[in-house]
Design goal:
Blueprint: H1 2-23, H2 28-45, H3 48-55, H4 57-60, H5 63-81, H6 84-112
Length: about 120
């Protein structure tokens, strides 16, 4: 049942993104920024937490989940470290994901010889 919930939530996020791309003049890059910002705002307001509890990876793996992790890490760090946590919390909370993206992106570039599009 967890897989079905994750599929529903993750699929809904993707459908929303596709509708935004199809119905507006926004580029995928704009939608990316919109989704991260939305994840931060919903995470800070506590609205995204129930979505994460219901959808699990379906809510944390898509890009709004990154914004949610930034907000959650920042809030946690501010409670522990005060104002300094506002600058360090988001990065420390997402450092593992950022590191994995860089390492795996580099490995794919080494193994598969990427080419630019003409």
């Amino acid at each position: 049942m967890e897989y079905i919930k994750a599929f529903i939530v993750g699929g809904a996020i993707c459908v929303i993104g596709q509708i935004i791309i199809n119905k507006t003049q926004l580029t995928p890059a704009h939608v990316l920024v919109l989704f991260v910002t939305t994840g931060v705002i919903l995470g800070a307001l506590g609205v995204y937490e129930p979505i994460v509890k219901f959808g699990g990876a379906g809510a944390t793996v898509p890009i709004p989940g990154f914004g949610y992790a930034l907000a959650k890490g920042t809030i946690s760090a501010v409670k522990e470290d005060g104002l300094l946590g506002a600058f360090t919390g988001g990065i420390s909370a997402t450092a593992g994901g950022i590191t994995a993206a860089i390492v795996f992106g580099y490995l794919m570039a080494v193994f598969f010889n990427p080419k630019t599009k003409p």
